[in-house]
Amino acid sequence: MHTFILLLLTALGPASWGSTYIVTSEYLPEGMPFTAAVIRCLPAGLLLIAFSRYLPQRTEWPRLIVLSALNIGCFQALLFVAAYRLPGGLAAVIGAIQPLILLLLVWLLQKQPLKWLALSACITAIIGMALLILTPDSQTPFRAFAFDWDSIGITAASVGAISMALGVYFSKYWQVPENQKPMALMALTGWQLTLGGLMLLPLSLLLEPSMPKLEVANLLGYGYLSIFGTLIAYLLWFRGIQQLPPVLVSSLGLLSPLTAVTLGWLFLDQIIEGWALFGFLLVIFSILVVQLSPYLTRPNQQKKPLQPSDLFD
Description:
Radius of gyration: 19 Å
Number of helices: 13
Number of strands: 0
Order of helices and strands: HHHHHHHHHHHHH
């Protein structure tokens, strides 16, 4: 598949995650984040397992459990802890460090020198996200300015970003044994969603034991998040991880808060202007620079498929 088309399809994953805010606020019962996480992950995972008809081999379970915890279980739990303990969008600002963490992971663990263009773009994205969300007059879904530096919330947001970065890294670089065929994308995605949902289930039952009576709007909201925001989104996301340099995929994760801001502006009459608008444009620019960095630094290789090493000198 052409790299540009693959990038666009992969971008649909985090873009759909960005719609979670408006769907949750407008269509789901209040105060049940872990229940929502379980409902969106478990049915989608079981459906993919049923279609794939694949039962993992004994040697595949350790890798599956670790990836499920990093990509789904731990990440979702820490994300909700941070969202509840940190006002506004501070968690989103901390989450913006994920591409930088991944870039450093590949540098440290793969022993390859950094490309400074990609590194600068990742740092610029963090600055842009801070301007977008922490501007005093910003009226985005994640606005925040006067806040308490809650140590538990900040730790949860930071560890969550590390968890997601490690999930992307190991999804790309964790090699299967030579005598073992790689798991098909549908089965890999389905088992991760299922195991991750099962990890979140005890938190849902413990912290949110009673489910209110669901209306049609609630069912439609959960259905959208499960099918479009999880099943399709994670299939596209994990395929992108398999076929693209990991930092390119990770930087696309910044489209999630950008999409939430755009939908809030379009449908909820939320305002973005001044420094917040500049930050919004800065993040978009940074994402584009990361995507183009392999070509900008190696123009004579534009027609060759991108490799993970293309983000390093």
